[in-house]
Amino acid sequence: MVTPVVNAEKLNNFSKVCEILERFDRQPSKIIPILQAVQEEYRYLPEEIMTFVATSLGISPARVFGVATFYSHFSLEPKGKNIIKVCDGTACHVKGSSGLIDVIRRELKLTEKEPTTEDLLFTLETVSCLGACGLAPAVVINEKVFGQVSKKQMKDLIDEYRTKED
Amino acid sequence: MSQKGIISVNGTKVPLDGEKNLLQVVRKAGIQMPTFCYHSELSVYGACRLCIVDIEGKGIDTSCSTPPRDGMVIKTHTPKLRKMRKTLIELLLANHDNSCTTCDKSSACKLKDLASDLGVTNIPFKKTRESRKPDILSPSLVRYPDKCVLCGDCVRYCHEIQGVGAIDFAYRGEDVVVTPAFNKSLAHVDCINCGQCAAVCPTGAIIPRSEVARVWEALGDESKTVVAQIAPAVRSSIGEMFGIPESSVTVGKIMNALKVIGFKEVYDTSFGADMTVLEETNEFLQRRKRGDERTMFTSCCPGWVKYAEQFHPELNDQLSTCMSPQGMVGSLGKKLISQTEGKLEKDVIMVSIMPCTAKKFEKERPELSHDGTPIVDFVLTTQELGKMIKEAGVVFEEISPASADLPFGLYSTAGLGFGATQGVAEAVARYAARTMNGKELSDFEPVEVENNPQWKEVIINEGALDLKMAVVAGTKNAETLIGKIQSGEVSYDIVEVMACPGGCIAGGGQPVSYDSAIIEKRKAALKNAGKINPIHAPEENPYVQKIIEKMLGGKVGGHEAHDLLHTTYQSRKRIDFDSMSLADAGREAPVEVNVCVGTSCFLRGSQEILASMGDKIEQEHWSGRINLKATFCSESCSHGPTVTVGDRKMFKADMGMVVEEVEKQLGSIPAGAEK
Ligand code: SF4
Ligand code: SF4
Ligand code: FES
Ligand code: FES
Predict the structure, then answer these.
(1) Coil, strand or helix: which one is B208?
(2) pLDDT at residue number B636
(3) Domain spanning B212-565, CATH architecture
(4) Confidence of residue B673 (pLDDT cuts 50, 70, 90)
(5) Is B628 in contact with A47 (Cβ distance < 8 A)?
(6) What is the mean pLDDT of residues B428-435?
(7) I need a surface site. Which of A21, B184, B456, B671 has the fewest CB within 10 A?
(8) CATH class belonging to B579-667
């Protein structure tokens, strides 16, 4: 259930959105960097916040929605606290990255359509190259890169990040 | 800037005369050029590529986005261009929901016409786009995304002319779609229901929502008395659907057709317009008497009214409280007929026939009801009326005229004038002049205002009447005007606003027309209809006087009029959301605190209250007992910041007030208690 910690965080995030708007001088032309900054706070773009941003900048919510859906790096679905990126590029694929994806989906009860856990702890993203082909198969959790990951290691990593939270 | 010179179009020399693009030159040469995305009043988008021409030395390009230059040699229908156009249509049809036989736009669909004109006989391509669900929740419009050709006309109209931006492109590539924000329904966003998007859409992707079936059903119900009222502008355009010359007077035919269809009584909304003139003028004079010197805005256009409620809630008490003429006839009609027929108001069915899609929304306003019974039950657009006439087998071209029923069938030429821009302002000014000076106004001619092409003004200085009026159409133009009134740059006593450029004759429910002169033609038709009308002034309408005697306590602006003919407005959110929960207890908490962070409250410091409230909850260990929420508009924008604690709404709130109230409410609920 929702804990007070999360509440404080939500409040804090909302103040940040106001700061972001100030930082960009409420310039409608800065909509993309503004949305980027907002996404960093929330890990996705909540509809209410997009509407708030739109009204504050004097542009229509429909246009902000258009911008947010045009660029693939914007996410309109909530993302987990920990983002696991598994590379499924050629090199990693050959070295068994799809096995890792299976392990993660099984462990976290995820599917291709639902890449985020219900408790919002993890999101699985597959990418086509992490630029770390020498380390294949490569996995990045949050900003940290792990190379030549085995299935067993993958499981341990998940457990490690899961307990980190508690 | 205007280009001079000569261009060769398919070998014919065409002199240039200030045309902005090659497309205009081609059309001037009398050549048919198909277009989806070109509208002279909108920005050039260049997306449909149907208007391609072959320019010597330059190759193929879209003519709508190419400026003409002296000496250009262009071809418009080479085999290659014809093939390209045909392919474009075939590609569109591959993904189109090709249900033409059941599509409401069938008779005016540009896509269907083009497919036939360009000789498309089969669709060689496979469907590549996923189907999308229609949006059927709006009372005014229905959207079928699978019929959209992505020309963007609706998007640009809504943004550039209405300044609303309710719909826009979203996603990319194969997935591109025109949609309201967050894939919501038009019913749940800032759409003002003007229907101009439907009027410019070349296909059936956005169409007025039809109520024809429900009206037939009511007509078949013996327990109901079904009556109709028709708006001024309907008679200016219905003939278009039957090939009747624009100048003909069709109102009598409409009345007779309605009788054949089965309406018990047929009335004219222009009667309501007459009432509006009297009530609104009186209201204005009363405002001045009270010392209220602020601008009064007209309220007959429900598109404008919703716009104001959403974007300018601070103007709510500057909108005339008069119901629109449809509301007035509905209100008086339902009351009177139910009395004479000895029926309940719910068994009298009032059907309005309007040029307008926003009237469909208006009839659902809770303010337009008598003890919960709507005063208008159904609204048919001119388009829908045309369809019913055809369905009923009436040969409209030949049917003889009949007169409307009394008392709401008689009207003045001034009331009829409500059908086009400037009609309301003129009727009010003339009536005011007659009552105050005892004689006619010498002249009423709105003129352009220097540097402000968005509106026109009339300054009257005759006898006791001192009146500055503005007439504006299109809500983006209205927005500019409001800005300048609020900044003090200009000032007016009365502002007439119509959401549709041209007024009701150009409403979103009028027959679809691709004729650029159509508005002028309808204007002329409306004038014609007025010429044969013997009553000129609303106060000369004997039935207006009778109704005032019989139903309104013998006077304009009295109690009865207030109850029956006036209304109220609400502040509206732009987008329907639940509030954003910031510190909920995970279940229903005993006390709910809602802080408005809508733009106007936000500027007044609601964010600070929100932040301090968050701290306070922690300090006092209130979590679990308080549900802290941020809402995006509490709809009381002019008294912000607005904070609601439990069921108590506080205006101009500060932290002290909020905490005091929270403590009071928490005090009355023992800790640990749950609902
Ligand atoms: S009805 Fe008017 S406001 Fe609504 S989407 Fe269409 S053009 Fe925009
Ligand atoms: S809905 Fe109609 S007007 Fe709008 S983009 Fe699609 S086809 Fe064009
Ligand atoms: S293919 Fe895996 S990092 Fe490049
Ligand atoms: S009309 Fe020129 S591209 Fe559509």
Answers:
(1) strand
(2) 67
(3) 3-Layer(aba) Sandwich (3.40)
(4) very low
(5) no
(6) 96
(7) B671
(8) alpha beta
CB of A24 within 8 Å of a chain B CB? The answer is no
By most ligand atoms within 8 Å of CB, the mutation choice from B25, B33, B62 for ligand 4 is: B62
CATH number of A8-70: 1.10.10.1590
Q: How far apart are CA B359 and CA B356, in angstroms?
A: 6
B102 CA to middle of ligand 2, Å? 19
**Chain mean pLDDT for chain B:** 91
d(CA A5, CA B463): 72
Total CB pairs under 8 A between chain A and B: 100
| CA-based nearest residue to B477, from B508, B500, B505, B446 | B500
User: Using one digit for the tens of pLDDT, what is the confidence trace for B291-315?
Assistant: 999 999 999 999 999 999 999 988 9
The residue with tokens 């009295």 is B558
pLDDT 10s digits, B95-130: 899 889 999 998 899 999 999 999 999 888 888 888
Domain with CATH 3.40.30.10 in chain A: 82-165
Residue B251 structure tokens: 């109102």
The residue with tokens 């207006």 is B544
- The predicted pLDDT at position B579 comes to 60
Give the domain ranges of chain B: 5-77, 88-208, 212-565, 579-667
Using the beta-carbon criterion (under 8 Å), do A60 and B190 form an inter-chain contact? yes
- B559 burial class (0-12, 13-18, 19+ CB within 10 angstroms)? exposed
Domain at A82-165: CATH architecture: 3-Layer(aba) Sandwich (3.40)
CA B434 – CA B642 distance, rounded (Å): 45
- Do the domains spanning B88-208 and B579-667 agree at the CATH topology level? no
Mean pLDDT computed over every residue of chain A = 85
Predicted local distance difference test score (pLDDT) of residue A128? 82
Q: State the CATH class of domain B5-77.
A: alpha beta
Whole-number pLDDT of residue B130: 85
Ligand 2, pocket-test mutation among B93, B104, B203, most atoms within 8 A of CB: B203
Q: Is it true that the peptide bond before B180 is cis, omega within 30 degrees of 0?
A: no
Q: Judge if the beta carbon of residue A17 lies within 6 A of ligand 3.
A: no
- In the reported structure, the alpha carbon of residue B174 is separated from the centroid of ligand 1 by a whole-number distance in angstroms of 25
pLDDT score for B633 = 65
A25-81 pLDDT, tens digit per residue, is 989 999 999 999 999 888 889 888 898 899 889 899 999 999 999 998 898 888 888
User: Which two three-digit tokens encode residue B134?
Assistant: 């229609």
Provide the strand spans (E) within B556-671: 580-583, 591-596, 626-631, 643-645, 648-650
Task: Check residue B322 and give its pLDDT.
Answer: 98
Instruction: Report the CATH fold assignment for B88-208.
Output: Alpha-Beta Plaits (3.30.70)
